Amino acid sequence: MIKGGNRLTLLENGAAYFPELIAALDGARREIHLETYIFAADATGLAVADALMRAARRGVVTRLLLDGFGSRALGQGLLDGLRSAGVEVLVFRPDIGMGLRRKRLRRMHRKLAVVDARVGFVGGINILDDLHGRHLSTPRRDYAARVEGPLVADMHAAAQRLWRLVTWSRLGLRRGEDAWLKPRVEAVGTQRGTFLTRDNLRRRRSIETAYLHAIHRARRDILIANAYFMPGVRFRHALIDAARRGVRVRLLMQGHSDHPFYQTAARALYRHFLENGLEVYEYHATELHAKAAVVDGQWATVGSSNIDPLSLLLAREANLVVHDPGFAGELQASLEGALDSGAHRIHRRAWSRIPWYARFASWLAYGLIRGAMGLAGYAQGWDRPPRRWGQGGKHADHSGPA
Would you name the residues annotated as active-site residues? Predict the structure, then answer.
């Protein structure tokens, strides 16, 4: 449901996000809830941990929900310190295990914070330093949003649902139903938006459906920046249909990736995109971790959801969808800056001349990922085999060798 009366602030990179988050944590009076996929014990992570501990020590109910896979490297010492200070810490699916079992693949990928049920944060930024990583000399590019107004009630409700779900799955832990604040819902601004979550129950397609509705309604311009972009058939066809009716469709993806195998697989789709009128760019200035899009300068989204089978079919995700030209324009200007200053455009003719072994590697990686999804029982929900690798025709799927 679209709700008006909000004040929404775009936050680019950790340099903008973490000071706002820590200030909100330090200003908390009654309740903090923080969810993150990765919590790293670097300088940024320790600063956030210190703010959480300060809040708990002054009597604020402070909850931290971590993913058991994404935050598996977080040391027990820091966890013990958080708990000793009074922070309630829960881990989503701590038993990682091995293999391709569905439970292992269903991760908590959300990056969400709600403070005193009156201010929220949502986006793609994990709790780790902007320069955390082997290849980074400049900060990774990512986005989040600060939210005030009626949408915070939806964020608070989502946080409460997941916390209770994880709590109820742990024997011996108190449920704490009465400990949650009642959100403030009065209008504080003029911006309209929707807070969306993806889970494996009633909200399986909510984020993908929001994207598809915006793409189907597009008339001029679609700009998608997504770190792990491997869309299924419906999403690909929607983009191609938009391009065929004259919409400019631009895709900004990683040039430097922390998952090279996954990037190789994603490149298997490039020829398909290029032959159907889409513009493809790779961002090389630093690591692109964004999950953001703008349509016609009016519709925008930032969040945690990639456009790939893991995010759209398996993980718990959270995105903010904004219907506001000011917010959309600010995000578009930032993404346009990334295109102009740090991205390389992939041209159809040049891409067709890449070595055969590179095309084969892309095809093989893509096939392995699709095979893994099939073994986990999710292939039909994401993709179907192309009629023939490289076949032409309407909506032909050139998603084999790049």
Answer: 109, 111, 116, 289, 291, 296
